């Protein structure tokens, strides 16, 4: 059995491009960064902890394959989480306006016994055009930014702010398909074989 340790509909949709059949088992963990933890250390820890929490909660075995991921928007050394209010979203989007930021998306693929664990951190550089306060208010009113890291969705209307991207689009959405397909192949799962129509 393949398990996606995430409630994200975006990750579910992306994973469905690689494998036909999988279970969704969201992980509920404390996502507070540690003091002095780097953004890279943080996203890798989050993915691993999500995988471990899902295994513990669901009693998964060594034959089961767990996929966990975490995405953080990072500007400088600051991690931008999901906005808690309009003011929080304004703060985030103002800091991204006219700037280049990093989107870090980590992967943890492991078996249920945790004796095989593979991780990756995929970093994509995203450049925003200048955004006005009026546009930020209008964007907030669409409802899109509320549950998105960095207060925007590149695959949605938030894409109108993106001037340039260097790296993986699917990683910014939430699941880097290239790197995930490579990790899955290490565990004997071929995305191409999974998608053959018989």
UniProtKB/TrEMBL annotation:
<comment type="function">
    <text>Nucleoside triphosphate pyrophosphatase that hydrolyzes dTTP and UTP. May have a dual role in cell division arrest and in preventing the incorporation of modified nucleotides into cellular nucleic acids.</text>
</comment>
<dbReference type="GO" id="GO:0016787">
    <property type="term" value="F:hydrolase activity"/>
</dbReference>
<feature type="site" description="Important for substrate specificity">
    <location>
        <position position="10"/>
    </location>
</feature>
<keyword id="KW-0963">Cytoplasm</keyword>
<feature type="active site" description="Proton acceptor">
    <location>
        <position position="70"/>
    </location>
</feature>
<dbReference type="InterPro" id="IPR029001">
    <property type="entry name" value="ITPase-like_fam"/>
</dbReference>
<protein>
    <recommendedName>
        <fullName>dTTP/UTP pyrophosphatase</fullName>
        <ecNumber>3.6.1.9</ecNumber>
    </recommendedName>
</protein>
<comment type="similarity">
    <text>Belongs to the Maf family. YhdE subfamily.</text>
</comment>
<feature type="site" description="Important for substrate specificity">
    <location>
        <position position="71"/>
    </location>
</feature>
<dbReference type="Pfam" id="PF02545">
    <property type="entry name" value="Maf"/>
</dbReference>
<keyword id="KW-0378">Hydrolase</keyword>
<feature type="site" description="Important for substrate specificity">
    <location>
        <position position="155"/>
    </location>
</feature>
<dbReference type="InterPro" id="IPR003697">
    <property type="entry name" value="Maf-like"/>
</dbReference>
<keyword id="KW-0546">Nucleotide metabolism</keyword>
């Amino acid at each position: 059995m393949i398990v996606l340790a995430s409630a994200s509909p975006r990750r579910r949709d992306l994973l469905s491009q690689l494998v036909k059949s999988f279970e969704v088992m969201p992980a509920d963990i404390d996502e507070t960064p540690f003091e002095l933890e780097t953004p890279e250390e943080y996203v890798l820890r989050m993915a691993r902890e999500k995988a471990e929490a899902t295994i513990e909660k669901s009693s998964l075995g060594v034959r089961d394959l767990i996929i966990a991921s975490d995405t953080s928007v990072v500007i400088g050394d600051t991690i931008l989480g999901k906005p808690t209010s309009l003011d929080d979203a304004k703060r985030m989007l103002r800091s991204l306006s006219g700037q280049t930021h990093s989107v870090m998306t980590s992967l943890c693929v492991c078996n249920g016994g945790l004796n095989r664990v593979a991780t990756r951190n995929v970093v994509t550089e995203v450049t925003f055009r200048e955004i006005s306060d009026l546009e930020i208010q209008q964007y907030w009113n669409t409802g899109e930014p509320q549950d998105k890291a960095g207060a925007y969705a590149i695959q949605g209307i938030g894409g109108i702010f993106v001037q340039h991207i260097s790296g993986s689009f699917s990683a910014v959405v939430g699941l880097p398909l290239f790197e995930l397909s490579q990790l899955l192949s290490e565990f004997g799962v071929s995305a191409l074989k999974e998608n053959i129509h018989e």
